[in-house]
Design brief:
With 130 residues, this protein is mainly alpha-helical. The protein has two domains: 49 residues, no CATH class; 80 residues, no CATH class. The chain is built from five helices and two strands, in the order E-E-H-H-H-H-H. A two-stranded antiparallel ribbon has the order 1-2.
Length: 130
Amino acid sequence: MLYTLPNTKNGKKQTFILPESIALLLLAMQTNKKDYVFESPTNNKIYIQNIQAQTRKLKKALNNPNFGIHYLRNVVVSAMAEQGINATYLSGALGHSDLNTIKKYLSIPYKKGSEVANKTIENITRENNI
């Protein structure tokens, strides 16, 4: 399923693919209002306009005062990077217009990096009988 954001913060219209499994879950959600995934719990507003209350609840539940919704981008992008997804594709998935922006969201996987490096060294020394 394709969806298009007509007005993004970089001023460009961007089209993304929404996985069918997620689209089906969203379509199955009960709703009284049109076109919004997250409705406001108050009667006088159509959608949640300020997520500070929800974020405070998450910080408390997670026992992490530094947690923020935007942090989830870092988690998802780092997980995809560890699966070997190219940084160019990661930037595209996040809607970046500058490829260098991805560096803000990636965390360096030190343990995985040392694991890959050690396996490479083992393969080289095995092949060369060292």
